[in-house]
UniProtKB/TrEMBL annotation, chain A:
Boundaries of every Cytochrome oxidase subunit I profile domain copy: 27-531
Organism of this sequence: Dokdonella fugitiva
Annotated TM spans: 39-60, 80-101, 122-141, 161-189, 201-228, 248-272, 284-308, 320-341, 353-380, 392-414, 435-453, 473-495
UniProt xrefs under Pfam families: COX1 (PF00115)
Gene3D superfamilies named in the record: Cytochrome c oxidase-like, subunit I domain (1.20.210.10)
Pathway per the UniProt entry: Energy metabolism; oxidative phosphorylation
GO BP term, pick one: electron transport coupled proton transport
UniProt keyword list: Cell membrane, Copper, Electron transport, Heme, Iron, Membrane, Metal-binding, Respiratory chain, Translocase, Transmembrane, Transmembrane helix, Transport
Protein name from the UniProt record: Cytochrome c oxidase subunit 1
Subcellular location: Cell membrane; Membrane
Keyword Transmembrane helix: yes
Primary subcellular site in the record, as a coarse category: membrane
Topology term for the membrane: Multi-pass membrane protein
Known catalytic reactions: 4 Fe(II)-[cytochrome c] + O2 + 8 H(+)(in) = 4 Fe(III)-[cytochrome c] + 2 H2O + 4 H(+)(out)
UniProtKB/TrEMBL annotation, chain B:
Keywords: Copper, Membrane, Signal-anchor, Transmembrane, Transmembrane helix
Presence of the UniProt keyword Ubl conjugation in the record: no
Protein name: Cytochrome c oxidase assembly protein CtaG
Membrane-crossing segments per the record: 14-35
Similarity-based family: Belongs to the COX11/CtaG family.
Source organism phylogeny: Bacteria, Pseudomonadati, Pseudomonadota, Gammaproteobacteria, Lysobacterales
Task performed by this protein: Exerts its effect at some terminal stage of cytochrome c oxidase synthesis, probably by being involved in the insertion of the copper B into subunit I.
Length: 542, 197
């Protein structure tokens, strides 16, 4: 099967096998991009369930009005930790893991550019989350002021806040090192002939995401450092009594925070731009437009931050500027959505599980995008601020956006990783169960928010009871559905007898589909010869 | 240049970007003040205006602005603090005096500082105080009450669209000054000072 390509012949006899022996040597000291990618993905799945358990506690408490199960302090801990863990522990490491696994395979590189730093950037994460999660068992508990850590509230608790701040520092260091590694890999390690504008869209999306990461993670580190010195060293950056200004924290935080939300969605755009062409059996429509759209979104993300804080009392001119700049983002995002639809248009489509998740992504992410445009409208936003409407909005873009894309990519690339096909039947069951339950879970929250239900509050008016119960049922159902996902992955890795071919999917193009399945421990030790017709997007005449 | 050197180059460049981004986070602190005060015209400093400006004021009797007063006390300060009037109607350009009452309900002498804030923020540059208890530290002995004046005028240049302003004060405990005060009192009476905190 590999005989057509001399580079792969070489890999095949290189395969047996330079894997380090022994568990510690294999995983703790690894510098192999595939092993580190696997570590990231497994860690992310673990954190997804830790954060998911917290979400289940939140939905259980909100199942009925009145205080049911937990103390309000614990409820606030759950909302704050759920967000921190899902953002920094589940979504971001999953994307870094996918980048680690796939970027070298997609650009014909033998490994990441800085493999030892790669090891370090992963192994910081377990320590960061140990610091963060261990707070739950300490006297005084974990952070209760929300993941945004607004002072003065976030500093009103005990000294445990230092654990959260150092955890955030560690997560930031890990992300920055991961990002630098990805930039160096993409800029320096491409195989001859893999020009920048021939790279797969996923690689492009990660290159731009990595630039966002190195530009804004240090700003978050600065903001939490100021919180630390305000709390413990008597400074008054945000302390009004000492002449500081708490609103300034919000500006600094969201200068990081808005690019951060694109850090969590741009790689998802890349994934979907790989999957839809494969199952439509057509090259992606408007490859260059897709790349420029991602770059435009990344640029705009730096100049719209204050739309998260319209209600702080900004001057009218500021509100108008941030409103119009925010609405501008809908244009490049719209370009992407139309291009995905145009790629499907007239294609010979089939609906395997990755494609189902990708299509659900396009539809449901767009719904989340629409509610985002609603939130951008200043006079309307005063009604939405801090209500469940915002919760519904960002869960549509993060769960049915980022998380669905990660699941799509797992189904799409899993056969390449482990060499076995997953169970299509159970994949589809997982998809339909997830896509129905996630809408039962989050759609009613739009109406709850419009009716005035505030977020981050453990109790609510009885008027909101019915929709909260529906939402909670959807929540438990969605949570349970993810156990199917774990089952499908474990089955595919350890028990499936259905071997994957080299190309895996009939319509798949790109270098990652020219190496055997499972991908050998070392690939592309000799740079591959790139045939233009083997490239994913097929647009080589630009 | 080989790949190792090129990777090191990317690492160095990215390291510089990261360092600049970290410093930029801190640079936003002074930038925030500059943008607020010089670009958006929001006055952050609570200081008094020059008295000479008051002399040349012309009262705009044809226009009335309502000024509301809101008071708050930080949870660490056992004081009560209220305005004597909840709002007044003033003509722009007219110097007006209002009174606030503070009482120390605690058992110790405490130093407090009041931090003012004006809403809407666009009006902050047009609200001027010639005298305010917020300019200095306020010392209240245990159980002591005090009437405190604020003299202000609204600049006649205030944009026409603003018909109502809110002046809000929050009193905070000045912990460092309170510890100092307590130490001084105990030196005078000869008794040992209590443990700080």
């Amino acid at each position: 099967m590999a005989a057509a390509n001399p580079a792969i012949d070489h890999d095949a006899h290189d395969d047996h096998d330079h894997k380090p022996q022994g568990f510690l040597h294999r995983w703790l000291f690894t510098t192999n991009h595939k092993d580190i990618g696997t570590l990231y993905l497994v860690f992310s799945l673990l954190m997804f369930f830790v954060g998911g358990t917290m979400a289940m506690i939140i939905r259980a408490e909100l199942f009925k009005p009145g205080m049911q199960l937990v103390q309000p302090e614990f409820f606030n801990e759950m909302t704050s930790m759920h967000a921190l863990i899902m953002i920094f522990g589940a979504v971001m490491p999953a994307f870094v893991g996918l980048g680690n696994w796939m970027i070298p395979l997609m650009i014909g590189a033998p490994d990441m550019a800085l493999p030892r730093m790669n090891n370090w950037s992963f192994w910081i994460l377990p320590f960061a989350f140990f610091l963060l999660i261990s707070e739950i068992w300490m006297p005084g508990g974990g952070p209760q002021g929300g993941w945004t850590m607004y002072p003065p509230l976030s500093l009103e608790g005990g000294t445990n806040v230092a654990f959260m701040i150092f955890a955030v520092h560690l997560m930031g260091i890990s992300s920055i090192m991961g990002a630098i590694n990805i930039i160096a890999t993409i800029l320096n390690m491409r195989a001859p002939g893999m020009d920048l504008l021939k790279m797969p869209v996923f690689v492009w999306s990660w290159l731009i995401t990595a630039f966002l990461l190195i530009a804004v993670m240090p700003v978050l580190a600065g903001a939490v450092t100021m919180l630390l010195t305000d709390k413990f060293f008597g400074t008054s950056f945000f302390n009004a009594a000492g002449g500081g200004d708490p609103v300034m924290f919000q500006h600094i935080f969201w200068f990081f925070g808005h690019p951060e939300v694109y850090i969590m969605i741009l790689p998802a755009f890349g994934i979907v731009s790989e999957i839809i062409p494969t199952f439509s059996r057509k090259p992606i429509f408007g490859y260059q437009a897709m790349v420029y759209a991602i770059a435009s979104i990344a640029f705009l993300s730096f100049i719209v931050w204050a739309h998260h804080m319209f209600s702080v009392g900004m001057p009218l001119g500021g509100e108008l500027y941030f409103m119009y700049a925010t609405m501008l983002i809908a244009i490049p995002t719209g370009v992407k959505v139309f291009n995905w639809v145009s790629t499907m248009w007239g294609g010979s489509m089939t609906f395997e599980t990755p494609m189902l998740f990708a299509i659900a992504f396009v539809i449901l992410f767009t719904i989340g995008g629409f509610s985002g445009v609603m939130c951008a409208i200043v006079p309307a936003d005063f009604q939405y601020q801090d209500t469940y409407f915002v919760v519904a909005h960002f869960h549509y873009v993060l769960v049915t956006g980022a998380v669905f894309a990660i699941m799509a990519s797992t189904y799409y690339w899993l056969p390449k990783w482990c060499g076995n096909m997953y169970s299509e039947r159970w994949g589809k069951i997982h998809f339909w169960s997830s896509v129905i339950s996630v809408n039962v879970l989050f759609f009613p929250q739009h109406f709850l928010g419009l009716a005035g239900m505030p977020r981050r509050i453990p109790d609510y008016n009885v008027a909101f009871a019915d929709f909260n119960m529906i939402s909670s049922i959807g929540g438990f159902w969605f949570g349970a559905s993810q156990l199917i996902f774990v089952g499908v992955v474990i089955h595919a890795v350890y028990f499936s007898k259905n071997r994957a071919t080299t190309q895996v999917w009939e319509g798949a193009h790109g270098l990652e589909w020219t190496v055997p399945s499972p991908a050998p421990h070392h690939t592309f030790t000799v740079p591959p010869v790139i045939r233009d017709d083997a490239l994913a997007h097929g647009d080589v005449t630009h | 240049m080989n790949a190792g050197n090129r990777n090191l180059g990317v690492l160095k460049t990215a390291g510089v970007v990261v360092a600049c981004a970290f410093l930029f986070g801190f640079a936003m602190v002074p930038l925030y003040r500059v943008v607020c005060e010089h670009v958006l015209g929001i006055k952050l400093a609570p200081g008094a205006v020059d008295r000479s400006r008051v002399a040349g004021l012309v009262e705009d009797a044809g226009r009335t602005v309502r000024v509301q007063f809101v008071t708050g006390v930080n949870s660490k300060l056992p004081w009560s603090f209220t305005p004597e009037l909840s709002s007044v109607e003033v003509h722009p350009g007219k110097l007006t005096e209002v009174w606030f009452d503070a009482t120390n309900n605690g058992g110790e002498a405490i130093v407090g500082n009041a931090v003012p804030s004006i809403a809407p923020s666009e009006a902050s540059a047009f609200f001027n105080k010639t005298e305010c208890f917020c300019f200095t530290e306020q010392v209240l002995q245990a159980g002591e009450s005090r009437r405190m004046p604020v003299r202000f005028y609204v600049d006649p240049q205030l944009p026409r669209a603003v018909r109502e302003l809110t002046l809000s004060y929050t009193f905070y405990a000045n912990e460092a000054a309170t510890v100092r005060l307590s130490a001084e009192q105990h030196t005078k009476t000869g008794s040992p000072p209590p443990a700080a905190g």
